[in-house]
Amino acid sequence: MNIGLFTDSYFPQVSGVATSIETLRNQLEHRGHKVIIFTTTDPNATMERGIVRLPSVPFVSFQDRRIAYRGFDRCLKIAREYNLDIVHTHTEFSLGLAGKYIASRLKIPNIHTYHTMYEKYTHYIFNGELIQANHVRVLSRMFCEKTQGVITPSVITSNKLREYNIKVPIAVIPTGVEIPSFDEARRQTFRTQLGYTDEDVVLLSLSRLSKEKNVDQVIAAFKEINQANTSTKLLVVGDGPARADLELQAKDCSAVSFVGEIDHSSVQQFYQAADLYVNASDSETQGLTYLESFANRLPIVAKSNSYLESIMPDVQFGALFDEEHSMTDVVLDYLKNKAEGIIPEIEAESLVGISAEHFGEEVEKFYHQTILNFSHQDNTMFDKLYTSIKELIHDVVIGGGSKNE
């Protein structure tokens, strides 16, 4: 198959979506397919194989994410040259609209992955004054109903889309991760480089430092954990708009360290150097950091939800906290049981279901089934919608000027 992936977020931007798309591309190419990625420009991007970048500007109130404002017809020309068999959109915004436009022109199916539970992110757009939860429901339904199928990374997301009254086929396919080798000597060397001793118990927080990630709750809980167990250390990896406030919050606790943003290629070192991954976010729909943690044999303590319950069948994967059992209590209890040998290590054999290979296989099956069932429908109504949104993007983002592509 010749496959077009359309996304507003891709490397060098650091995000779970970018990681998911890179993993998917690698797996599809490994299985013999040809993949081209259509995405936004980025000031830090370099020339890359199979990447088409459209002129873009930072998104309102979310400056490290970008939105394309022209180049859709160029995308169509390139898509024709590649003779695409299927369009797979990964955003509901600019490149998502470009993908829909191309699928309608080429009369090929459009699959969409619904990565983000936007009801948790409306505060990024004019502090939630412009887009609210009911708007998310309507816009999500408008977008997803104009596809031939939707992939969700979790049952939680699938159920939410059904609540939105979306009736197209939905496949729950969690993003897979590479399963790296575990090297104890390498782990000890890196811990030493980070300034930790063999006696230190390292808790890892690895995420974008933003409001919805609730890292402030992790720091607050850690202060209590550290008082009860002075061997504990908290390593905060990542960057974002909340970093300054979080550093101020942790100023009075010397056991908390911030290392900022890291290159994705070095992520596994941090997972393997830690003893427990901690996360208080309630906005995760696919939780790539959780899967990456498991893949590196690192158990987690996180806020309870049905997604995590479904991917944590055994105690060696970690524990969940809720309203009745605080993060502080769950972490201390888990560390105690781990130290006493009650909890076994994560075994490689238990990780097959979250592997990148399994992910690629399941998406490939969904593509084949969708193409088999596809029959081109009249896109006149969507074409009108596309044109109006395209003009709106142009007027709002660049404030007038030529609308020619």
TrEMBL record:
EC number: 2.4.-.-
GO MF annotation list: glycosyltransferase activity
Pfam families xrefs: Glyco_transf_4, Glycos_transf_1
PANTHER family: SULFOQUINOVOSYL TRANSFERASE SQD2 (PTHR45947:SF3)
Keywords per UniProt: Glycosyltransferase, Transferase
Gene3D superfamilies for this protein: Glycogen Phosphorylase B
Domain Glycosyltransferase subfamily 4-like N-terminal: 14-178
Domain Glycosyl transferase family: 188-337
Enzyme class: transferase
Name under which the protein is recorded: Glycosyltransferase
Organism from which the protein derives: Fundicoccus culcitae
